[in-house]
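# step 3/5: fold
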Amino acid sequence: MPKIAFTTTEAPLSERLKGDYVFEVIGVDFGISTSRGVTNGSDLMELKLKFFADATFSKPLAQWTETLYFHESCDWKICQFLVCANFKVGGRIFQKGDDTELTTENVVGLRGWASVSPEMSNSEEEKKKPEAERKRYNRVQVFITNKEKLAPNQPAKSAAKDGDDDLPF
């Protein structure tokens, strides 16, 4: 019999977006590309992004995963993401000539602006359907580097980590 662990009763955020929106990185996974194209075998970073109506981050609209490939043909998008998200190296925003290691700890919580729009699925099965019936999904077209820089979301530390070990939870 199947099992499930309780996580949430909220439906996934799936509004179709078109325009410029603020986002927050809420998760990240690292792996190796298994694509059939030029990025096959390259490292990749899957960013779990949540998009909001405005920079107060109070009204979530949608969330999805964007995959960034560590391949010379795609380096521009990773650098664009890091500049957009106010990623700091040595106390200043990531810039030409810098190199850094990306980890879950220094990526989750980053915030920035992105221009997004819906795209149609290009799977072979979907291409056989009429255009009006093809699946659409959100996609980051570009990470915006010339809008206000947003501070990362710093999750509250647990009390135990702050040295308050006598709390029950």
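# step 4/5: annotate
The first strand starts at residue 19 and ends at 32.
# step 5/5: archive (pending)
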